[in-house]
Write a structure and sequence with these properties.
- By secondary structure, the chain is mostly beta strands.
- Helix content is 0%, strand content 54%.
- The protein has strands spanning 3-7, 10-12, 18-25, 33-39, 45-51, 58-60, 68-73, 78-83, 92-100, 103-106, 110-114.
- Strands 2, 4, 5, 6, 9, 10 and 11 form a 7-stranded mixed sheet that branches. Strands 1-3-8-7 form a 4-stranded antiparallel sheet, with no helix packed on it.
- Strand 9 (92-100) and strand 10 form a beta hairpin.
- The termini are far apart.
Length: 116
C-alpha cells in the first residue's frame, strides 16, 4: 500500500520556523521526484517546491525562495521542508506529492497556521 504521511504542521507566529516531514512507503522512493504543494483557505493548489529523484536539483516557487528548503533522505524514505521567516500568507494545508512519469501519489496533508 502506497503511503505518504506528512507531519510537523502546527501554529507558529509570523517570522517563526517549522519543519515538515513526509514519510513515504509502498513504492520505490528513489525513482520519484518529491514535491510539496499547499492549499490556502478558499484557494486552489499552489506548488511550493520539488526535489528530483537523487536530490541533485531543487526548485522553489518564487515567494518561497530563500525561506524554504527541501531535502530528501533516501535511507529513511523521507522528504522534508524546512520553512523559515513564515508569513501569515503561508497559512495552508501542505501536501506531500510523489511523481514518476504517469504515477503520482498524494499525502493527506498537514495544517500550517501562521498567526500571532
Amino acid at each position: 500500500e502506497v503511503q505518504l504521511v506528512e507531519s510537523g504542521g502546527g501554529l507558529v507566529q509570523p517570522g517563526g520556523s517549522l519543519r515538515l516531514s513526509c514519510a513515504a512507503s509502498g513504492f520505490t522512493f528513489d525513482d520519484y521526484a518529491m514535491s510539496w504543494v499547499r492549499q490556502a483557505p478558499g484557494k486552489g493548489l499552489e506548488w511550493v517546491s520539488t526535489i528530483i529523484w537523487n536530490g541533485g536539483f531543487t526548485k522553489y516557487a518564487e515567494s518561497m525562495k530563500g525561506r524554504f528548503t527541501i531535502s530528501r533522505d533516501t535511507l529513511k524514505n523521507t522528504v522534508t521542508l524546512q520553512m523559515t521567516t513564515l508569513k501569515p500568507e503561508d497559512t495552508a494545508v501542505y501536501y506531500c506529492n510523489a511523481q514518476w512519469g504517469a504515477w503520482e501519489y498524494w499525502g493527506q496533508g498537514t495544517q500550517v497556521t501562521v498567526s500571532s
